[in-house]
Amino acid sequence: MDVTPFDIRIPDDILDDLQRRLDQVRWPDELPHTDWDYGTNLAYLQLLVNYWQNGFDWRRQEALLNTFSHFRANVSGMGIHFIHERGQGPSPMPIIITHGWPSTFFEMYKIIPMLTDPARFGGDAADAFDVVVPSMPGYGFSDKTTERGVDPAHIGDVLAELMAGLSYSRFAAQGGDWGASITARLAYAHPDHVLGIHTMLPAIITPDTGPGSRALSEAERKFLDARNAWRQAEGGYSHIQGTKPQTL
Questions:
Q1: Which of the residues 36, 98, 150, 217 could staple to 145 if both were Cys, CB 3.0 to 4.6 A apart?
Q2: Domain 3-15+68-205 = CATH 1.10.287.110
């Protein structure tokens, strides 16, 4: 696997194009006093766009991002971007951390130095990690997918290949949101290589209710009812993304 150092350098014309788009927003109307009942609150969105135009400094953000060690590698025929920071300790444990939707590797920027150099934050150097934070296919600076079927199981295989290419035969894995599904599938498909996992999306797990399974407890039934009610009221975005994403 060829690994190439990568710097984030967004061309000026792309930033200029974004400013033009923000300048030319045609705002939708909104029923009075509806707040977030029907979707994004208009006043909030206008404040956000104003900040994006007049307060947010991309070049400053870009400089912060480039304080990390970025790379790209060809993995399963796709160009995958990732951060790879080595641990400052006697025997750092390798760990791959996978972001969620619709997010990026930047989720991890505060935790990466704490994991690589725990002694600097009052911890024990013996607890250091070698940290790998990829951009999933179609996200950030990784290539877009060009075929169907790039699901959590497929991406889990891609991440396992990435870690093998970095000479990590055994590693831990962590993920939240969409990354939690990928982390679970990674461990399921590659148990000989995954030391352990930590995920942050318990609501996605559905208990087995098939033949021979135990009856759900009252707490479990309430949990599933609450989850289903949330999906019905708030999950429109998820249904579109999961069925007809091209519609957007």
A1: 150
A2: no
